[in-house]
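Journal club prep — side note

Before the paper discussion, L.F. wants everyone to see what a predicted structure for a comparable chain looks like in token form. Sequence:
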Amino acid sequence: MFDELSARFEDAVKGLRGQDQISETNVEGALKDVRRALLEADVSLPVVKDFVAEVRDKAVGAEVVRGVSPDQKFIQVVHDQLVEVMGGDNAPLAKAEQAPTVVLMAGLQGAGKTTATAKLGLHLKDQGRRALMVGADVYRPAAIEQLKTLGAQIGVEVFSLGADAKPEDIAAAGLAKARQEGFDTLLVDTAGRLQIDTDMMEEMVRIRTAVQPDEVLLVVDSMIGQEAADLTRAFHDQVGITGAVLTKLDGDSRGGAALSIRKVSGQPIKFIGTGEKVEALQPFHPERMASRILGMGDVLTLVEKAQKEVELADVEQMQKKLQEATFDFSDFVKQMRLIKRMGSLGGLMKMIPGMNKIDDGMLKQGEQQLKKIEAMIGSMTQQERENPDLLASEPSRRRRIARGSGHQPPDVDKVLADFQKMRGFMQQMSQGQMPGMPGMGGMPGMGGMPGMGGMPGMPGGGMPAGRGGGPPRRQRPVKKKKGFGDL
């Protein structure tokens, strides 16, 4: 998400490099690029005008301290304005003084309300809250069944009276059940339409009157772009929203909706959906999102993702293995599976500062290479996985692994050689000896991200075969297949 916007903002500051200060004259080119970037990202025109005007006012004449160049100062101004436009601070979900907290999910058909309801139910469950989901969409075929299926998958109870009941009656009955059985949160999934109409709005008002919600969350498909502003305004004026859930951000590289919703409604984005999996819901943090847009990464979210997936005992054990250089192939597979649970390799890498310039083709190639390596490890015996030195001393084992995984013996030889070098590299990194990477070895779950060393911006230019953690190699044509260290 935001890839196109990030690239445009990077172009915007190029004209300020080498300048002594930010002036009316030299800032105009950058502002034009910012305006173009926002419009191409499908941000609402009134929002773009206000944004550019605010950046101009704050940038021109801004004090540039020693050691900070004008282009860096301009980036800071743009970052701060992005944070302000998107709401400033994270806005948590409301919690009623007297349970249950009632959350009404609203939005157009196809925005992902039912899935967002289930994702929110799982999020609350992970926080120790007991949620009841209510299926009040009686119009879309199988909507209630979809919610029940998702509820069974995540272990959150679903209530409904079926498709013959009125939505407001279903919501009211669900509230009564929640009060009677001690649920602390009620999530009401409502019906949508393909477009805004009077009947839908009147129905939403009736449901709102029936349950008196603490939250009315507007579920918005991020790919509708500028239409997000009109949609938000219509719902807010007629129903009254308290926040928004922005879905399908993983499928939109523009991201304009995220910059329009808060400005139009005055209400915050509370959650974002970043994938199809029911776990792919994150609280929305404007400052972190602004950093992602400007290519600064998002280490806090990366750490949170890792902490959700990794047990403390596993972290300590892995840290010990890294320090003693006893990290083996079984550990490698475990780490790769951990990364898959956290999301795509590309999405994770771009959360690391300086890694936003990684080419998508390189990431795809890296993921394919990791699959090949996993296939080779799958052809090893348990003894070979736990003791890679066995493979180094017995060529027949390497030949057997090559046959079993559908590769050539030189491919296995290269993986083994690079793995041994990698163990030394990871040992240094975990002990804080690698310049520029003080902490990655100790980040929960991230100490075993082997093979990532060849990505741009990583220390030592990566681990190309035969180089270990040495200086970057010169660019030259590579005719042979890429090995483990070239990732």
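L.F.'s comment for the group: Confidence is low (pLDDT under 50) at residues 434-487. Keep this in mind when we get to the figures.
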